[in-house]
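note to self: dont lose this again. the chain is below, predicted strucutre after it. 809 aa total, dont forget to put it in the shared folder this time
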Amino acid sequence: MRMTDNNFGSNLRLALAITATAGVMICLWLLLHSCTPQTLDDDRPTGTGIALRLGTVSMERGGKAPTRASSAITTMSGWEFASGDLLNVYVQATGSGTQASKGVYSRNSTGGWEPQYSTKAAYWQRSTGNTVSILWGPEADGKVYHLPDSYDALPGSDMKAKMWNYTKCTNFANLWRCCDLLHYQAADIPAQNTALSAELSHSMAQLCVELTAGKGMTEDDVKTATVSILGAYGCYTTDATSLQPVACQAEDATATSSPTTKDITLLKNGDTSLKHYALLLPRQVFPSSGRMIKISIGSGIYYYTPTGNVTPTAGNCLNLKLQVDKTAVNALNVSSTGWDSEVTTGEPPTTDGEVTVVPSTAGSLTLPTNLSGTDNKLMITGQIDGEDLKTLSKSMDKFSELYINATLSGTTALPEEFAKNMANLKVITLPKGMTRIENYAFRGCAALTSISLPEGVTSIGNSAFSGCAALTSISLPEGVTSIGSWAFGYCAALTSISLPEGVKSIGIDAFYGCAALTSISLPKELTSIGERTFCLCAALTSISLPKGVTSIGREAFSSCAALTSISLPEKLTSIGSSAFHGCKALTSISLPEKVTKIEEQTFDGCAALTSISLPEGVTSIGNSAFNGCIALTSISLPEKLTSIGNAAFNGCKVLTSISLPEGVTSIGNSAFYGCAALTSISLPKGVASIGSWTFNGCTALTSISLPEKLTSIENAAFKNCTALTKVILLTGTTLPTCGNSTTFNMQSPSPVLFLPAISAEEFAAATDKYTKWGSPTPAWSAVHYAYSPGSGTTPADYANPDNYLGHWP
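---
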């Protein structure tokens, strides 16, 4: 019995111990789980009730975790997810605005992924049409997270507290992992019981700076360098839609404009390494106007400023191969490559990006043959010559930006057709030592917005920039002396240009069709304005010509529709035909005294011109010279004028009177056609003929005296002169010939013909000759002739119809 009792007691104590132990375990389990932070809500929508199973999770283009080491690591192993790493997984009905089902998945010891706890799974929301998002990084929780101040030193406690996943920042590899944010997002995925595998993309941009020694530096010098990026975005929040980082201000996650910036020290891959790395927030533009990289070597500090804007992009590596000289830092290679691509000296990247080529000797330029696309940026330093420029010309279709900072030898000219019709070219900088831009160099570069010409340039060739429709401005060096024909023709966006004082010649059509050009300053040494130089410059409002200009070519300012005023110099002797044709805003103009001829169409269509005074020396007015000057009310014609061309004043519908000088002998066809306000005009004695349609439509003209030497009047000369009732013929008994029956088809009521002094006998002997003159049938309601009773003598002023004695046989 004792043995039995002893066995019973022993068993009882054992049972109690097991029970107690189990109770403790249960309490510990409950305690642990009640204290674990809950990343997700417990009321997640379960949708179909099928939990998402996560399979293989990989990284796009591999991961790369530089690690700090005493010596450089040539090939850095890609980092991988470790046991215990967590991924946030979201499933939402595609196109739905409802809450997503969220889960947290943990990597287990065998490399698989499973819900952190049974309640932490994400659920398929529909049988079809699910959007799945996976995030390695902070949730869209409205919080601000910081990048470290340095990748080359482990963060202190204050900085760690501001970073994501800060508890794992225990070494350089983990620091990199915590900043290398990843995301995956795919739509229209059907619910499935099988595991979903995913490839995560890098949300950050990577920066790799590789240094090389230049003038005054040794490789040992640059191995001691510390490299920093200046003014980089330092804070971010996670966007709720894309689940990608967005730069923001340090104290406000919603303030995404003007994000907080700071200088960040790059991770040096080994104490003596030449390569330095950092992870950056994408989409930040580092402008060409500011320093981007700081390089500290001993007590010296050196800065790199990009020649063009630089923008790191998510999932790519921005590679800068920088040559550090004692006085400067130059880029040997600037490229954007895949995440894990290495930069190798002499090998340009195989994708679109920035490329620097450094030919060591002139004539040795070699360009990449494996560039894709047309939006590449090329920087050339080193030595080049004319053959190199020809080589470059053949590949210009690959580049949108070209910066030639090389030393030029053997030539001073940019070749003809260097980048002709390269519609992709936007920006170009030409090298020092260049003096000539040859013909057609940039003709048809429709996207070109910026060009930097070196100070030594003296001439711009024919059509050098014609058709550069996006070019808004250009600065010409002070040494430029000549501008070729069509040099800037059809640069439709060019708003202003300042021509250097040394320019002595401007070719024809130089600024033809520069429709946005509002102003231009012409150099003092200029002596002529060529043909069509400013034709179709529709926005040009005013221009002052230099004092030395003696000639203006034909159509020089034709169709400058906004031109309101122009100052012509005293030395001007000739103005070409159509010089101001279509200048419909021009209200007045003063012609210098040395001008002797108004060429055809000179002021044709100047619809706002109200008055003009012609110089005393003008002898002729050409065809259509003032055609369509519908606001012209008066004009003073000089005494030396001898001829008026066809349609010279055609359509001058408010011109009320005009005095023709006695020296005028010829008046062209339609000279005063449609001058509807013209009430009177005195024809000079020497006029021998009146052309067709000369006064057609002069509906206010009431009387006209035809001069003694007049021998012919052509068709429709006075047609539609509906107010013309008095025609005084001073030609004696020899009547001028008329073109046809339309000559005096005036459509006026009761027109009267006044004849010169003849006797009653003379009139009676040739009544039909007078009454039917100008028409095959009688055109006149009355014919009067000068007759004094009893004497037959001519009245003293027989040109005045009031002195005529009416006589009708």
